[in-house]
Write a structure and sequence with these properties.
With 238 residues, this protein is mostly helical. It is built from nine helices and no strands. The termini are far apart.
Amino acid sequence: MTDNLEALGRALPRILDGLLITVELTVGGALLALIIAVVLGLLARVDNILLRGFARVVIELFRGTSLVVQLFFFFFVLPLPPFNLDLPPILVGLVGLGLNYGAYAAEVVRGSINSVPKGQWEATTALSMSRAQRMRRIIFPQAWALMIPSLNNLLIQLLKGTAVVYTITIVDLTNVFNKLRIETDVFFAYTIALIIYFLLAYALSSFMGLLERRATAKLGRGRKKTKAVPDLKGAATA
């Protein structure tokens, strides 16, 4: 046990570096995924068949293929002709995670917007709101409160998905512990890894829980009144 602790102490700088990479991939990938999700989720609802078809193709492509294969494509294929696009490994990881989980999150965005009560849509029409005003001021705030729990699950999945980026030479947390097990033993190394990943996931879940509480509070919903409909007239004139 003493030898394991000594090895852990020696590996601490590498663990911190790997932890930083994992956090960067998680936060950066999540932000990119959110942007992609909102764009694709909205496009998947438009009347224009070309835009809607584009969104569906992108969503199904990245949901229907492996994250590992996508990372390999971006890392090994894009540098070749005719693409000639040589991206840094960390950027490949961010793009791969963002596109993959953004495609899943796009369905969450689309479904949450569709779940907003029909009466809210009709009321915005009665108030002569433009499409942009209707979405920004009335529909999306309500949909946002609905989508946060599902986005929380995808965020945790994205955190765990960062573990595969070591396949494209990125020294993340998993890669560091793969090396640490050689210096210690399998049980010790991966137990420490499990604890760190759990703490990261717990911190992310706590943050998303805070966002959910704030989102529902802004809509005037109490914790036990999750089905209450906000005051539309007040929201529209705010």
